[in-house]
Amino acid sequence: MIDRIYNALSRHPWLTMAGAVFLQTAFSLNSRALWFSDEVRYANAYENMERAGAWVVLALNGMPYPDKPPVYFWFLSLLDNLTPFDPPAVFFVGAALSGLGFLYATYWLGRVLGLSRDRCLGAALITLSTLFFAAVLHYSRMDLMFAALIVATSACLARTFVRDGASGWAVLGFGLAGLAVLVKGPLGILFPLLALAFYLAWRGKLRRMTSAPVLLGLAVAALVAACWVLAAWIVEGPDFVRTVFVEQIFQRAANTFHHKEGFSYYFAVLPAVWLPWTLFLFGLPLTLLFTRTFWSGLLRGRKTADPARTWLW
After folding, report:
1. How far is residue 163's CA from residue 83's CA, in Å, rounded to a whole number?
2. Within a 10 A sphere around the Cβ of 198, how many other Cβ atoms?
3. How does 87-109 read in b/e, with b if 16+ C-beta sit within 10 Å?
4. Confidence of residue 258 (pLDDT cuts 50, 70, 90)
5. Would you give the distance in Å from CA 109 to the centre of its chain?
6. d(CA 86, CA 121)
7. Mean of all residue pLDDT scores within the chain
8. Contact 163/149 with Cβ under 8 angstroms?
9. Each residue of 4-25: b (16+ CB within 10 Å) or e?
10. Per-residue pLDDT tens digits for 218-232
11. Does 92 score more than 90 pLDDT?
12. What would the pLDDT profile of 169-206 be if each residue is shown by its tens digit?
């Protein structure tokens, strides 16, 4: 019975994922005010964008706000105008749709790599069932859209470099990465670029990092990001752009591990937020990681192993 139901769901994966997100979020779209963590700050930036016309450079308390680019706030404005929802509900609609986009990107990545529909749907539903993901669906911020664009970029790059597809897919992927940069910053392109570099190096094909699809794609990503930088320069001047690059990019990159709880914080929190699937780790043969034969075999087979599985790792 369960197999028949799941097979029916996997025949309509896009509707299944949309229905699952709907069931997770529909009851809470207008159930609370914006108060948690960064929500109030983002709400003020959105209000200034809508009322004061701060569409290119966001404003916080009437002052330029260099912390975040404006794309996610444009997305919220689009929802505000196309749906019957008003703030604060529109912020939670944005979070729910961003989460759905992440699940769609996850499913698509699996399909690009040749996995079956039921496995790809299973991956999306497992993601949806984690404590962290379910919570972030009810939290107004741009992280889910940011992550969705990164995963979609990964799918496009895999189409070219893993499945030997047309180079245009890689260019499209880098374009999505450029858009991710305008959602939350340069990690939007750094994550996919590092993943591609490690994959090609592991497969002994690092020279492809200088191939036409990569170089053209990087140019497209740079062009997408440069459009906003140029507009911000025109609107606020060079001092604002300097603040973005020096304080928001360079200084944050140089001081990445600045969490007040220290690095050990993540060892305590990550197992909790990945529940219930953290328990799966206890069933894995982790002792293999401490054997020489495992690592020597891994190194010997790195050029002949399944490229799709290698890309996922």
Report:
1. 39
2. 14
3. bbbbbbbbbbbbbbbbbbbbbbb
4. low
5. 13
6. 32
7. 91
8. no
9. eeeeebbeebeebbbebbeebb
10. 999 999 999 999 999
11. yes
12. 999 999 999 999 999 999 999 999 999 999 999 999 99
* Number of other residues whose CB lies within 10 A of the CB of residue 269: 13
Q: How far apart are CA 220 and CA 177, in angstroms?
A: 9
| Residue 248 confidence (pLDDT) | 73
Do residues 191 and 150 touch, judged by C-beta distance below 8 A? yes
**DSSP letter string, 29-41:** TTSS-S-STTHHH
More confident of the two residues 263 and 42: 42
Two structure tokens written together for 252: 């944050």
Provide φ and ψ at 64, rounded to 5°.
-55, 140
- The one-letter code for the residue type at 73 is F
pLDDT at residue 253 greater than cutoff 70: no
253, 259 contact by CB (below 8 A): no
Measured N-to-C along each axis, helices 71-82 and 143-161 cross at an angle, to the nearest 10 degrees, of 110
Tokens of 17: 């994922």
Residue with tokens 């090609």: 200
- Residues in Cβ contact with 78 at an 8 Å cutoff, skipping those fewer than 6 apart: none
CA–CA separation, 124 vs 271, rounded Å?
19
Rg of the chain in Å (alpha carbons): 21
Note whether 183 and 71 are within 8 A (CB).
Answer: yes
pLDDT digits (tens, 9 = 90+) for 62-85: 899 988 899 999 999 999 999 999
pLDDT tens-place string over residues 289-302: 999 999 999 999 89
Cβ atoms of 92 and 28 within 8 Å: the answer is yes
Chain Cα centroid distance, residue 233: 27
Whole-angstrom distance, CA of residue 155 vs CA of residue 306: 16
Torsion sign (Cα): 181, 308, 117, 286: negative
Run of H or E residues at 63: strand 63-64
Do β-strands 63-64 and 59-60 pair in parallel, antiparallel, or remain unpaired?
antiparallel
pLDDT at residue 250, rounded to an integer: 66
Q: Which tokens is 260 given?
A: 């007040």
